[in-house]
Automatic annotation (TrEMBL):
Name of the protein this chain belongs to: diguanylate cyclase
GO biological process, one term: cell adhesion involved in single-species biofilm formation
Molecular function per GO: diguanylate cyclase activity
PROSITE patterns cross-referenced by the UniProt entry: GGDEF
Transmembrane regions: 12-31, 191-212, 219-243, 255-275, 287-307, 313-332, 339-359, 371-392
Length: 629
């Protein structure tokens, strides 16, 4: 690719600024997320001992002689082992008896984790906990992304024993926190990771849109790479197991290698799409294609083979593939491919972080930052630079196409000039005709665009109730059918609330129909303030009757929302021309997981009948019921 010198200089500056800003931003975020900590309870150096799975338990572990325990270096990284590892530490009595303390292990990929806490005066554990990938969220002491355990208050020293059994790397970055300081630390860490995931998701979605608008598969492959990288980091940080597949410990044991393999697969395919490898070497192009197939096979193998085998194979393969891709980019840069030069710089960030993470997980090096943090920083910087490279490549391709068209037009003009002395009058009339056609075409395009805008506005107005601004009955019918299909397709609950203002006719008779209209507007405004999710849909389906469609909401959640709406309405009366109009409403809530097309109407009829039961049983109340199959 040949790029003009001035543009090349601008691209160099842009890439340099992007890289520096990204590196500084993410390093500063992850080095400064820990709040100022007061003095935690003192605890002894962590010691460890390997044991067969059934050799030790909490009934006899305190009887192991002290000379059989090995002091652990910090940070604790014992590599990979099939054996169970027992850790031991002594916690001094807390200076503040009223303070609550937490034992935090900042590593999410441990399969089995058992904790027993002994007081020095007791021979049995005061309390025991279990966590790890084999435990679902509800069985853990706290629903947190990393193992977290409350420490019981005690005026005595406490002996803590921790049993770890995992198929991956045995790491135990342990820390004791005050509860208030841990909350602040978690908030800061979530903010930093939120920036990272926000950047990745925004880039992935924007490039999906570019895929649709440009038809370029490079944008699609880049989106796939970005989304898989985000899922990989979410798995390593524990967010995936906590929030996405918390009910599947089996999948958690496979997810890291599956998503990491998918990331490399999309990365290799994106590399082939971005760089003209085939132009310089058919063999290297086949190797890159083979890497994509190999990563696809790794995804399948990850499902079938144990994690302990796959993670070792993957870490070695990761280092080789990233190194090969970096060398390929550097080689192509020597051939004059400017994009390859930028690509090499971007891949270099990932190579450094990937190699450091691999060596750290294989217990070959010890780093001040965790391997997961290094992957986040390296992946974020590489992703930003790749986005810039993709934009440069697309811009250059577009400019090349425009220049080719302009050159062709210039050649055509020169050919026409040679005949100009024979066709002067004809050409003059032709140009005049073409101008009029273009002018008329432009007018038609403007008219069509205006018509399209008017149609869009009419479509919007056709779905909105003109009095309240809520969606109308026509929109409600469409939305209920659509959400019913989604519930049936994804097998998620769908809740429907039908509400009706109590004694609305009396309000009209006493204050007038204008007051009644103001009541409807007031009710709509209150409800819209209390309905927060974008997918929730408030509709006016009758005179004083409203409906709220709640996708992915169970019966308890639907009833809670309905009660909050009724409470808000009752607590905020309407002031109208000096009078205060107290409003209440009754509601029926129906919930179902759809199995056929007709169930949406059954759900509506059930919610409507529950509304009238609420009316008959005293009004200003909610009656809810699950729709039976």
């Amino acid at each position: 690719m040949q790029i003009h010198t001035d543009k090349l200089r601008n691209y160099d500056v842009g890439l340099l600024v992007t890289a520096i800003v990204a590196v500084v931003l993410f390093i500063s975020l992850f080095l400064n997320i820990s709040p100022n900590s007061s003095q935690p309870p003192h605890y002894s150096q962590l010691k460890y001992r390997f044991a067969s799975p059934d050799e030790l338990n909490f009934e006899n572990v305190d009887q192991v002689p002290s000379n059989q325990w090995v002091p652990a270096t910090s940070p604790v990284n014992l590599g990979m082992s099939d054996k169970a590892v027992w850790f031991s530490m002594v916690i001094e009595p807390t200076q503040s008896p009223d303070s609550k303390y937490l034992l935090h292990i900042d590593y999410a990929l441990l399969d089995e984790l058992d904790v027993g806490i002994f007081e020095n005066i007791s021979s049995a554990p005061v309390v025991t906990y279990s966590a790890g990938d084999t435990q679902t969220a509800e069985n853990r002491p706290f629903q947190h992304v990393k193992p977290l355990f409350p420490l019981p208050s005690s005026q005595f020293s406490q002996q803590v024993f921790i049993k770890v059994k995992t198929s991956g790397t045995i790491r135990l970055p342990i820390r004791i926190w005050k509860e208030s300081e841990f909350i602040q630390f978690t908030a800061n860490r979530n903010a930093a990771l939120g920036v990272f995931f926000g950047i990745l998701i925004a880039m992935g979605i924007s490039n999906l849109f570019l895929t649709v608008t440009t038809g370029s598969k490079s944008f699609f492959l880049y989106s796939g790479y970005v989304f898989c990288l985000a899922l990989t980091i979410a798995t390593l940080q524990g967010y995936g197991f906590t929030y996405l597949w918390s009910g599947s410990p089996w999948f958690q044991g496979k997810a890291a290698v599956i998503f990491a393999s998918a990331t490399i697969m999309f990365g290799s395919m994106f590399t082939r799409s971005l760089l003209p490898i085939k132009k310089y070497s058919i063999l290297l192009d086949k190797i890159m294609r083979g890497i994509g197939w190999l990563c696809g096979a790794s995804i399948v193998a990850s499902v079938l083979l144990p994690y302990s085998i796959m993670i070792k194979i993957f870490l070695v393969a990761l280092s080789i593939i990233v190194s090969f891709t970096l060398l390929l980019g550097a080689w192509m840069a020597t051939k004059g491919e400017v994009i390859a030069r930028y690509f090499t710089i971007a891949w270099g960030f990932l190579l450094i972080s990937a190699l450091a993470a691999s060596f750290d997980n294989l217990n070959l090096v010890h780093l001040p930052l965790t391997s997961n943090t290094l992957l986040i920083i390296g992946g974020a910087v590489e992703t930003l630079i790749l986005a810039l490279i993709l934009a440069i490549n697309f811009s250059h391709s577009r400019d090349t196409l425009i220049n080719a068209k302009q050159f062709a037009l210039e050649q055509e003009k020169q050919a026409n000039t040679a005949k100009e002395h024979l066709l002067t009058m004809q050409q003059r009339h032709q140009e005049d005709l073409e101008y009029k056609v273009e002018e008329r075409t432009l007018e038609l395009e403007v008219t069509l665009r205006e018509l399209s805008e008017v149609n869009q506005e009419l479509e919007r107005l056709n779905a909105v109730d003109p009095l309240t601004g809520a969606h109308n009955r026509r929109h409600f019918d469409k939305s209920l059918r659509a959400q019913g299909r989604r519930s049936r397709r994804e097998q998620i609950p769908l809740s429907l609330i039908i509400l009706d203002i109590d004694h609305f006719k009396q309000i009209n008779d006493k204050f007038g129909h204008d007051a009644g209209d103001e009541c409807l507007k007031h009710m709509t405004h209150l409800f819209q303030k209390h309905i927060h999710r974008p997918s929730d849909d408030l509709c006016r389906i009758g005179g004083e009757e409203f409906a709220v469609i709640l996708p992915n909401t169970d019966l308890q959640g639907g009833k809670f929302i309905a009660e909050s709406l009724l409470t808000a309405l009752a607590s905020e009366p309407l002031s109208y021309e000096g009078d205060e109009i107290n409003l209440t409403a009754s509601a029926g809530v129906a919930t179902a997981i759809m199995h056929d097309e007709d169930q949406a109407q059954h759900l509506f009829r059930l919610a409507d009948s529950l509304l009238y039961k609420a009316k008959q049983s005293g009004r200003n109340k909610v009656i809810s019921q699950q729709l039976q199959d």
